[in-house]
Amino acid sequence: MTQPLEQSGHAKPSRDEADAIDAANQTNSEDAVEPAISAPTTEAAKLSDAAESHDEPNPASAETVETSQPQESELKESESARRSRRLPLILAAVALVLVLVAGIYMLWTNRSGNNHVDRNPSVEATTSQASHGPSGDAQAYKALQEVAVKPSVANDQGGLTVSAKGVGSKKKIADAPTLEIFMDPMCPWCGKVGRVIDPQLQRMISAGQINVTYNFLNFLDSASSDQYSSRVDNALAMVAQEDPERLPAFAAAVFATDFQPNESSYQAVSDARLADLAVGVGVPGSLADRFAQGAYKPWVDKVNAYAITRKDAKDAKGEFSTPTIMINGKVWDLTAAAKSQGGLEHLDRALLKALGLKSQDVGHQGKIPSIGARGQALNVE
Fold first, then answer.
1. How confident is the model at residue 330 (pLDDT cuts 50, 70, 90)?
2. Cβ(186)–Cβ(151) under 8 Å?
3. What is the pLDDT of residues 117-130, one digit of tens each?
4. Contact residues for 158 (Cβ-Cβ < 8 A; gap 6+)
5. Which span out of 32-36, 82-86, 108-112, 193-197 was modeled with the highest average pLDDT?
6. At what angle are helices 247-254 and 271-280 packed, to 10 degrees?
């Protein structure tokens, strides 16, 4: 199976690739301040040697040599004693240097810490995050944080995390793995993948076996005449905020074969039809009727602009595309996984193997995938 992805987050999928896939069906090294210590030691040794040379007897006669033997022994003992006395002094000097360095470091750390406290720790943390961002472009991340109207349940990267406890990063099931999914409502391959795995995802979410973080993108607005992707993303965000239990079902319904529009020959989808789709999965009509207001559309724009720059979401070639699935923070190779099971229609089977969950355990509370919350995806081959 060739790669079923839109490259770089913007290009439409190659028709040749799509046809091929369908046909295949698949010490601060401190340098030890040794010079500062060894230099005076060497000088002291030279002075000592000079003194010893001055005191040595002149071996002019055999008698002198004989009588000098005890003196040489005494000199050797004296030299050993001097060296024994020098060693503690050297060690003491080293210890003093280390203490001074540690003291200076602690003083600097304390002053730095006090500066942060003076400036309001919460504001400082926010500023730091906005300057760097978790893994993507700093300016795009900063712009995302500054959007005035956004769902409070979204994380700082624009993700909407769903679990058996509801929506929000703080409601994750602690021991369960997290799938992070990047998708555009218009993306045909997002639809193909979603229709295969969404039934299993919904069962696992309800049973508390996984957490799923959705990242809804809108770069395929250019393929529609009425900002279809943005309007759907806005509706999904509203459901996440106000009726979180319906989010997985609504997200799956968006990719149903009888609803998802064709990227190549788009036919307009009205706000009323989108609202009817939401009501069909249990979303209250009073909420669905407000989709058309587009309250979260500016936020959706910033989510997309930041997401496509995320380095952690790029594949082995350094490209971002949809659909992308990450398992516990690492990109999962969808193409290889599908091939290993005989085709895309068996991707759900590959996903369960990657998570370490038996098919008969799907939907059963207490049966947590073996990789847990931190393990890497298992080899499915």
1. very high
2. no
3. 333 323 323 333 33
4. 144, 215, 299, 302, 303, 306, 307
5. 193-197
6. 130
The neighbour count for residue 278, using CB atoms within 10 Å, is 25
Pairing of the two strands 324-327 and 211-216: unpaired
Q: In 3D, which of 176, 299, 290 has the Cα closest to residue 243?
A: 290
Q: What percent of the chain has pLDDT over 70?
A: 65
- Sheet containing 166-167: give its strands across: 166-167, 160-163, 211-216, 178-183, 324-327, 330-332
Contact 312, 135 (CB under 8 A): yes
In the chain the first and final C-alpha atoms are separated, in Å, by: 15
CB 321 within 8 A of CB 311: no
Three-state secondary-structure class, residue 264: coil
Beta partners for residue 212, in sequence order: 162, 179
Report the pLDDT averaged over residues 98-103: 54
Contact 210, 178 (CB under 8 A): yes
Cis peptide before 57 (omega within 30 of 0): no
Q: Which helix (H) or strand (E) holds 52?
A: helix 34-55
CB 230 within 8 A of CB 297: yes
User: Token digits for 207?
Assistant: 């049973």
Residues 176 and 164: beta-carbon distance below 8 Å = no
3-state secondary structure of 324: strand
Contact, 368 vs 352, CB < 8 A? no
| Whether this model's pTM surpasses 0.85 | no
Distance CA 341, CA 350 (A): 6
Residue pLDDT, tens place only, 34-55: 333 333 333 333 333 433 433 4
Q: Residues 6 or more apart from 24 whose CB is under 8 A from it?
A: 1, 2, 339, 343
User: What whole-number distance in Å separates Cα of residue 65 and Cα of residue 57?
Assistant: 8
The pLDDT score that the predictor gives to residue 235 is 98
Helix (H) or strand (E) holding 17: helix 15-24
DSSP string for residues in 101-137? HHHHHHHHHHHHHHHHHHT-HHHHHHHHHHHH-SSS-
